[in-house]
Amino acid sequence: MKRIFSIIVSVFVTAALCWQAEAQVNRSQPSKTRQQKEAQYQREKQRREAEYQKQKQQKQVQAQRARQQAAAGQRKARHQAEVTEQAAAVDSAVIKEDERIARLVENEAKAKVEEVKPQEPKNEQIFTAVEESPKFPGGDKAMYEFLSKNIRYPEMAAQNNIQGRVTTQFVVEKDGSIGEVKVVRGKDPDLDKEAVRVVKSMPKFIPGKMNDKAVRVWYTLPINFKLQSGEVD
């Protein structure tokens, strides 16, 4: 009998312990679920924060690149403007120098009348300034048209992109024919040679005069060689 009673008591005790353990498990289950949700929320929050920081950094890098490209474009534009301005200044200086030399030659011609070739007789002297200057038939326009049609741009000078002004002087004889020809300010040997050749090929001028008489006169003629137009003026 006692044994049976002990078995019954043992069964009740075991059942009570199981019930107690199950109750504890049921009480702890909601707590673990909340912790898991909080942990998952924190991980999601961290992931979104990391993604936001990454996007923010990418936008900053793109903005920095855009600023650098804009600054490089501005520097390039300023450099091109400076180069253009320097080229214009050089061209202006060259033009002013050519004009200055032309004025010096003209003033020298007007300031004195002298014999160029001492070995020639006095009655055959060559004048640098006269009462009536020699004239090309048809005027200056016709003269430059003649030069433009008859000039042959030297091949070597063209290949080397050599351009510029060659100032020549030649004697217009009493009958209007072309006498001595020389270069007073050259640019390139080939251009100088071509300038002399084409001057020698010109037709007779209307001769210069002193006291209504034809005389020999030095005539100054600048010739500009320009590749872009393929002409000479």
How would you characterize this protein structure?
There is one protein chain. By secondary structure, the chain is of the alpha+beta class. It folds into 2 domains: 36-111; 119-225, TolA/TonB C-terminal domain (2-Layer Sandwich), CATH 3.30.2420. 60% of the residues lie in helices and 15% in strands. It is built from 4 helices and 5 strands, in the order H-E-H-H-E-E-H-E-E. The protein has helices spanning 2-111, 139-150, 155-159, 189-200, and strands at residues 126-127, 164-172, 178-185, 208-210, 213-225. Strands 1, 2, 3, 4 and 5 form a 5-stranded mixed sheet that branches. The longest helix is centred in the N-terminal third of the chain and has 110 residues, at 2-111. The protein is rod-shaped, with a radius of gyration of 52 Å. 14% of the residues are buried. The model is unreliable at 113-122 (pLDDT under 50).
Considering the chains and any ligands shown, give keywords for the structure:
single chain, 233 residues, alpha+beta, TolA/TonB C-terminal domain, 2 domains, five-stranded mixed sheet, 5 strands, rod-shaped
